[in-house]
User: Fold Probable cinnamyl alcohol dehydrogenase from Setaria viridis.
Amino acid sequence: MEQGGKPVLGWAAKDTSGHLSPYRFSRRVQRDGDVTIKVLFCGICHTDLHVIKNEWGNAMYPVVPGHEVVGVVTDVGTGVTKFKAGDTVGVGYFVDSCGACESCGTGHENYCPNLVLASNGVDSDGATTKGGFSDVVVVSKDYVVRVPESLPPDGAAPLLCAGVTVYSPMMQYGLNEPGKHLGVVGLGGLGHMAVKFGKAFGMTVTVISSSPGKREEALGRLGADSFLVSHDAAQMKAAAGSMDGIIDTVSAGHQIVPLLELLKPMGQMVVVGAPSKPLELPAYAIIAGGKRVAGNGVGSIADCQAMLDFAGEHGIAADVEVVGMDYVNTAIQRLERNDVRYRFVVDVAGSQLDATA
Ligand SMILES: [Zn+2]
Ligand SMILES: [Zn+2]
Assistant:
């Protein structure tokens, strides 16, 4: 804890139970170039689930989760002209990078080997970073993005991770062109954003899901053009070779060969879900048709700002269930069961943060 730092009230997981409870700590004193932000809303991402229970073996307790932050600027450091008090802003998955490596130099700082994550990361001063499940965050201006006033701040929060994670590869691989056919595998926090962006780009969008019950919502409210049940071999066969690209958002173990069969020759699959077991990729599945498989991890700050501006113009926000911090442990249990449409967002500013659930 930094001496003389700013006292902050948040919620943290203190051990591998992952149970969150109130936690007082202090943030660094605002430096030149920093922005101080009062947190309004913070989304709950699958990554938070893995980290708070130390499922990836990297938890540095106490862990204050949260990397889908929308808030209001309350103060800025000397030399900050880009933001001022009262601005609505966002903070996503990372809050610093080295600025000197090839990734940073080419505008892909999300792949910097010294990326500083917003939560459970190691800051340049050695401190463990603490995320948006707290009343205040202090972040370098270069890692803060502007949230268009036209977007609802609660529905905008998941754009900071889920949104940019699908938008960035769609731009990178040309999966943003009208008339192209996009497959979206899995209809959760990431998948429903990919459907919304795909439709806004003017694409034909097909949702591929293991849950037939999601058909109505996919085709109805979300506006997808068609729906495939992934274990229905006849449906999958009928759609073979029809897609220009696929965004695979599924984080549970699943077969990718049947998905690759949906691609046109030289089609592009992008993996953004992270199953704990390795994906099975026989060479024949990509050699025939010259198909391509890429991974993607969030997006650059420039991509994130472009995504937010696009979302603002097209009225795209996440479908959210807003909860108080006293509900967060229940929300996490429900998220583990995929019992949410499509993202939980904590109303941080509206919660009594020092009251135990
Ligand atoms: Zn995330
Ligand atoms: Zn770097």
User: Anything to note?
Assistant: Residues 62 and 190 are 27 Å apart (CA to CA). The radius of gyration is 20 Å. DSSP finds eleven helices and 17 strands in the chain.
